[in-house]
Amino acid sequence: MRILITNDDGINAPGLEVLEQIAADLAGPDGEVWVVAPAFEQSGVAHCISYTHPTMIAQMGPRRYAAEGSPADCVLAGVHHVMKDTPPDLVLSGVNRGNNSAENALYSGTLGGALEGALQGIPAVALSQYLGPENVNIDDPFEAARQHGAATLRRILDADMPQGETYRLFYNVNFPPVPAAGVKGVKAAPQGLRIGTSFAVEPHQSPSGRVFLWAKGGNQRAETQSGCDAHVNLDGWISVTPMRADLTAHDALSALDSVLD
User: Fold this and answer.
1) Which residues are listed for a divalent metal cation binding in this entry (predicted)?
2) Residue 8 assigned to a binding site
3) What domains, with CATH codes, occur in the chain?
4) Is 43 annotated as a binding-site member?
């Protein structure tokens, strides 16, 4: 198996090293793991691509490249440049430092990388490590992902879910904010919503008097719907959320059509 991996925290991020370990386990001794990751952190860029300017790419080592672009740029570079003669069998993105459950999924460059893999017709999975009081200060905050990542991916791939005739499935995996021994198991869960919280901005004044705005997230332990990704994560479970690029609100189509007709 040939696996292309990327992330949004940058090529030197500790979570990428975790994903390299997971991918090597999954690929096996006869497989290949290729890294094409952003040269600099790209958190929060979602599915952005560098459409109006070129992306510089540099080889950092065997099967290892850094690109000055987003995670989606990196997947495009991997599929159509770095691995163009031997395309990947699987695209993995992560392991993100912090969760991409609930509304975070919409901003996530980690998911953007997996989404681009799916749009290229390749099985793709985004992986993120939820952080909280039980794991953020342990020796390896990525312990749950490191120890349970390969097995979780095998279960997803073995499921071999039907793709249908629309946008290809990809998967959002979030490991709970607990040490590896505290993980209860794996659950399929829908994307949730943290009630009463959202991203916002915080103004700061520079010494020159100019005002700069810093984006900041909301309370990551806010109340969510029972059974959704963030809810099961906070209860100690790995969440697996099947996703598609289709943004249509299918539940509203009929009602809207009856009003417009």
Assistant:
1) 8-9, 43, 96
2) yes
3) 2-193+223-247 (3.40.1210.10)
4) yes
